[in-house]
Amino acid sequence: MVRKPKTDLAVLNDEESLPPHLLKGGSGRVVAASHGYAFEVKAGSHFRIVDLHGQQVVDFAAWVLPSREERLSMSYTRYHLSGATPAVGESLMTNKDDPLFRIVEDTCKTHDMTFMSCFPEMYKEAGQSGHRSCAANIAEVMAPYGMKSYLEVTDPFNIFQNTPMYTLKPLNCSRKGDYIEFEALKNAVCAASCCPYDLASHQRHA
After folding, report:
1. Around 165, how many Cα atoms within 13 Å sit in the side-chain half-sphere?
2. Where are the beta strands (DSSP E) in the chain?
3. What's the pLDDT score for residue 168?
4. Under 8 Å CB-to-CB from 106, ≥6 apart: which residues?
């Protein structure tokens, strides 16, 4: 069954509409359905990405500031974790083989490190030219940081995407209010896309 995407939450939100247990102080942003959001984090700071409605995949990418040459790398992370989904206390790595984010809390515990972001040609080939995509969303919000094309987007950390255990539970397994919290280990700019994928019955969006 195809369902319309809703919204996702990124970064220490203080929205009045959120349940008290999700509030953590500081500033935040509700990311509109099928859109993206970029935000900077300082080394030592914490931030959360929260699924407001359930079953919402979030494509997450990041680059170390100020140059963006060093970036979040799923291949380096897979190498260090022997391909396993990262758990609380473990880190996501960069292409310099340095830890970038440490997972502090995780209520879903199911994420993907193997699939690319959905991209414009995917939808064009399905007869949906102009459909929003995660790759284009990330490029759009990263334009102020010098990104010129969605072809520059790296393979993401697909938060709340259940590829590792798809035979045991649905690909969209996150529940309303599920969140993952990170500690930033370096100064970085992050990009999150509320995934708009809607081409198959195993939606990567809510």
Report:
1. 12
2. 8-10, 29-31, 36-41, 46-50, 58-64, 91-93, 99-106, 111-112, 157-159, 179-184, 188-194
3. 59
4. 87, 88, 179, 180, 181
Q: What type of residue is 12?
A: L
pLDDT in tens, 19-39: 444 444 555 778 888 999 999
Q: Are 186 and 64 contacting, i.e. CB atoms less than 8 angstroms apart?
A: yes
Tens digits of residue pLDDT in 162-194:
875 555 566 777 888 899 999 999 999 999 999
Question: Any idea which residue has 């992370």 for tokens?
Answer: 77
Locate tokens 């959001």: which residue? Answer: 37
Q: State residue 92's pLDDT score.
A: 98
Question: Tell me, what DSSP letter sits at residue 58?
Answer: E
Q: What percent of the chain has pLDDT over 90?
A: 60
Best CA proximity match to 206, nearest among 169, 157, 171: 171
133 close to 5: Cβ distance less than 8 angstroms: no
CA 111 to chain centre: 9
Cα gap 92→85, rounded to integer Å = 10
pLDDT of residue 170: 63
Q: 153: closest CA among 163, 161, 142?
A: 142
Structure tokens at 205: 């969006």
